[in-house]
Design goal:
mainly alpha, 251 residues, single chain, globular
């Protein structure tokens, strides 16, 4: 455990000059500010506003995961062709450390986006449909459902480079937006990039007492698939990195 903590601290220190920390603060703050400004004048149903905000976060998230995974992998490649991660006594700890560092930054950004939007919605716009903690819980649902995606993006970035990860993130965002429509009604439960745009809305509907029984059943199915896929993704990522010898410099 101490070794893991040291690795995480080292990974966090590596981000000082990459602008990653600033981006994880500016993006959620800017997103919350833009939506609060728009919602102050938009004649939407208050519940629809809540759902739409977290849906947009979920749709945009795959692109951000792809970009930040690529930045982390490129930083390791530039500083020693990944040897800083591959030459340690326990490679599994090195991979877990890098993933945890990315997940901690992501969690902070999501909770900031959720908290700032919730505070603005309640204090500035006077909306009382949901308490402040509901926004954070919706953010937590969004974060947990994205763990498997981040694991795969880190794998792709390390193994194939930044282009694959960023490109896949763009495709995932498009698919996530598409599956919010009627096209995704029967299949979104089995598509990882759709979970992050669907789960927060289901949680909000359940809290507000407007979740229909069929959607509840699909949500439970999706949750079971998500948990299983997340566990398998984490195990696969650790096992792969433990046996991987790195990629060639010209890969």
């Amino acid at each position: 455990m101490r070794q893991l903590v040291r690795y995480i601290k080292a990974d966090v220190m590596k981000t000082r000059r990459l602008g990653v920390r600033g981006a994880h603060g500016l993006v959620p703050a800017g997103t919350a500010a833009v939506f609060l400004t728009y919602y102050a004048f938009a004649p939407w149903n208050p519940v629809s506003k809540l759902e739409a905000y977290f849906q947009v976060l979920g749709v945009a998230l795959p692109i951000l995961l792809g970009v930040f995974s690529a930045i982390a992998a490129e930083q390791e490649t530039a500083s020693g062709v990944l040897q800083n991660m591959l030459s340690v006594p326990c490679r599994a700890v090195s991979f877990i450390s890098k993933l945890l560092q990315l997940l901690v930054f992501e969690a902070a950004a999501i909770f900031m986006a959720s908290g700032m939007f919730g505070a603005g919605n309640i204090c500035l716009l006077g909306r009382t449909e949901a308490g402040f903690w509901v926004y954070w819980k919706a953010g937590m649902v969004l974060f947990v459902s994205s763990i498997s995606l981040y694991t795969w993006h880190l794998f792709l970035s390390l193994r194939f480079g930044k282009g694959i990860s960023v490109g896949l993130g763009i495709v995932e965002s498009l698919v996530s937006a598409l599956l919010l429509t009627g096209l995704g009604t029967y299949i979104w439960m089995y598509v990882p990039c759709a979970w992050i745009s669907r789960f927060p809305g289901l949680y909000l509907q359940k809290y507000l007492g407007i979740l229909d029984p069929l959607s509840a059943v699909r949500g439970k199915t999706a949750a079971a698939v998500c948990v299983g896929f997340t566990i398998l993704s984490l195990l696969a990522g650790v096992l792969w990195f433990s046996r991987w010898d790195g990629r060639k410099i010209n890969d």
